[in-house]
Here is the input.
Amino acid sequence: MNKPTILIIEDEKNIGNYMETIVTSNGYKAVCAANGVSGLSMCTSHRPDLILLDLGLPDIDGMEVLERIRGFSAVPVIVISARTQEKEKVEALDAGADDYITKPFGSEELMARIRTAMRHSVQTVQIANSLIYCCDGLKIDFEKRLVTLDGQNVHLTQIEYKLVSLLARNAGRVLTYDCILKEIWGPFADTDNQILRVNMANIRRKLEKNPAEPHYIFTEIGVGYRMREN
Ligand code: CA
Here is the structure.
């Protein structure tokens, strides 16, 4: 069987080598590019199954590399960002990146992100069409628009239900505040997150045993929300 190929676009040699070691020891084939130009050309020549893209590259900006890739390919892209690039990673998600990981990261975290992104690229359609979300006692029946927690009905407002089902259909992936606001309140939604935060607080009161330490819906600070994947 052909091993899935991961293209690593990263100029820092030690981090590139580190990621290469992790992915190859987990059964993937790795190809590496040290700048944006060669990354783009390898994306065309190697047709990778997933791309790990550093945002801080010496030649072209990582964001531009992402936009150019999205011009011709829907391959899953995980952006690698530094702590100082908070704003860029949100922009990257809005520009079509599938996920991000912040330096420094461990092998487990990297592999979990890769597996989720890979699975979603294969299953996007199935997930979108699946009828039920089920995780640790929380069940959402999309057809009946019914939410139960440990068998008990949970009463959500229409907006709350829309929010929960949007996150559940994208379980495992981070959705940015902007993306959620547009999806729920439409393209002319206020870019203020306040309305989203208020709704999320209400949802957590209804779903989480301890809203301060959520089990189902996680906050990605400064970025958005991510729902637990089963
Ligand atoms: Ca870099």
Observations:
- Residues 11-12, 54, 56-57 surround calcium ion (CB under 6 Å).
- Residues 135 and 180 are 21 Å apart (CA to CA).
- The chain has a mean pLDDT of 91.
